[in-house]
Amino acid sequence: MEPVLLASYGYAWASGAAFLIGLFAAFMSTGRSENELWRRFSLLSFVNTAFCLVSVWQNQTTVENIYVANRWNLGLGMLLGPAFLDFVLCFANYRNNNVTSLGWAAAFVWLAILALQPEWLLTRELSFVEMPLHYYKYTSVYFLFQATLFGMITFALITLYVQGRNMPERTGLMRRVLPGCVLWATCGFWDTTISELLRIPLPISWAGGVTVNVAFLAFVTRRSQDAFRIQEKHKSVMRDVGHAREIQLGLITHEFPQMGNIRIIGKYLPMEELGGDFYNVRKLDMNRSSIFISDVTGHGIASAFITAMMKISLESLPAETLDHPGKVLTHLNEALLDKIMDRFITGVYGIVDRSNLTFKFCSAGHHPPLLHYRAAQDDVVELETRGRLLGAFEDLEIREEFVQLSPGDRVLLVTDGTYEAFNQEGKMFGMERLKDIFHKQILSSLDPLFYEVLRFSRGSRQADDMAGILICVEPSASNRPGISDPAQSAGI
Predict the structure, then answer these.
(1) Domain boundaries, the chain
(2) N- to C-terminal Cα distance for the chain?
(3) Architecture of domain 3-236
(4) If we measure between CA atoms, which residue out of 1, 190, 169 comes closest to residue 77?
(5) pTM greater than the 0.85 cutoff
(6) Residue 413: per-residue pLDDT
(7) Superfamily of domain covering 252-490
(8) Residues of the chain with pLDDT under 50
(9) What is the DSSP string of 320-354?
(10) What pLDDT shows up at residue 351?
């Protein structure tokens, strides 16, 4: 078979294969797995299709049209460089937009030269006509053209080799991909340089193009299958996390005990699906209710599991122990000691008594303040706290505190996610803002407080869980004028 005819058949077959692979890649890019990689693979395959079709035309056209066909062949051959580079960098997880942009820019510069000043590359002087790919002599500038094209291909191959060594789990597939790329580059160099120097009319770049396309198709398909399995596994994990969230939220008190003129309110807003803040309110008798609020360091499954441990420990306490805040925290500390690894917990346990309007409590390392609004003095004071962290020390060194309440008073117990919220400028919400809101607003719920914190940090990611308990003593007189609840309109 004549070399020209063999080349035509080869390029025609290669164009069909590249086109089908490009269609398949374009179809795969509409899925949710590896979209970006499939899109680049589709582009590479379609450019390769166009190059092969032009090569068929070049091999079968008349001598009069060879000059134009040769320009098209050079132009599409140059486009293969940045298309291959763009795909390989994405394939090898080497994201560098500057490199790919430079590659495309250089390719379009050469396309402009071929369109406007082709004589810079191709002379009008015929070379040996029997060569299917090299009919006209090239100028000295052609060396720069080749350096640009093969420079991009060489950079892509080196990147593929270096990044491939960093993916040991894909070594077997990489061994098949890299040789295919080297074969394709070698075939291209043969057609553009060596065959002309040796005057051997046997174009073989079509074979290298099909080989590399098939090799990449196998790898990208395998990679997409792996990504799909990871996505499915992630979905399964997220479903389990969703169930865990429902369970955790079920551990927190939702129905608060009725205590006549004393109202107890709680609110919890986790930053992630699972959080480390927790509170529990339980009615002890007709006049007394216990209140517990805690904050586990960190977020996620481990912190949520610790909150479940505290819930179980609280439920296991006998009734006589629940009357003594110090004993409750000591029991929790013993249950958690040496079982929570590098985490630590802060907590407050207290008892509110409506018969004598008192609130007695103990704190275990709970740094966030306990705020007491005193209606008679119209001011806010921080309740003194003392005690070591839960689960970290054998001796908590806690001390029972006692607060006398009056009609109109309020007591606020919060975790640090409230006042340690940051805005986009890096400023912290802070204690003074917390006190100011607590002082100025007549809080019938915690919604206004949470609303102000979220409004302050709008545009920033919530940095920590927020939880709070509010104790309100109904005033004997008319309510003190205050600011309306802006949170109701916000739907918090």
Answers:
(1) 3-236, 252-490
(2) 80
(3) Up-down Bundle (1.20)
(4) 190
(5) no
(6) 92
(7) PPM-type phosphatase domain (3.60.40.10)
(8) 1, 32, 131-133, 477-491
(9) HHHT-HHHHHHHHHHHHTTTSTT--EEEEEEEEET
(10) 95
